[in-house]
Amino acid sequence: MKIDIGITDTQRREIAEDLSRLLADSYGLYLKTHNFHWNVTGPMFNTLHLMFETQYTEQWTALDEIAERIRALGHRAPGSYSEFASLTTINDDASSVEAGDWKGMVKALVLGNEAVCRTARKAFDAVNKADDQPSADLLTQRLQIHEKNAWMLRSLLE
Q: Among 53, 101, 133, 151, whose CB has the most other CB atoms within 10 angstroms?
């Protein structure tokens, strides 16, 4: 059935492609955050274990919101490791950070949150051209959360 929501087919495709990249980056960051939650050790264990859990729990919910927006635009949401790997800008370096290197974990998550922010910002061009308020709202929410997460993590390193 034809989709007629006031956004052209071309615009919906461009937005869905941008949101697919955001989904891939978000999934990569989710995996890294969950990995560090499981593997953090040392004097910052309790603080970081809880912080990472709060962040990956929120990220998990966001994955569904991003994927459902892609579907609402009439496109298939990527959902495999190979698709995510081809779309993401997040470095898969979590296994290179030692369990006791909490500063390395925090730094990697700062960089990951900042990467998600950059990907979200790039999507605004297509979203604004299409006057797609729901996607703009989603991007704004993701930016607020990832900028705040990056700030909170960064503050641990100062």
A: 101
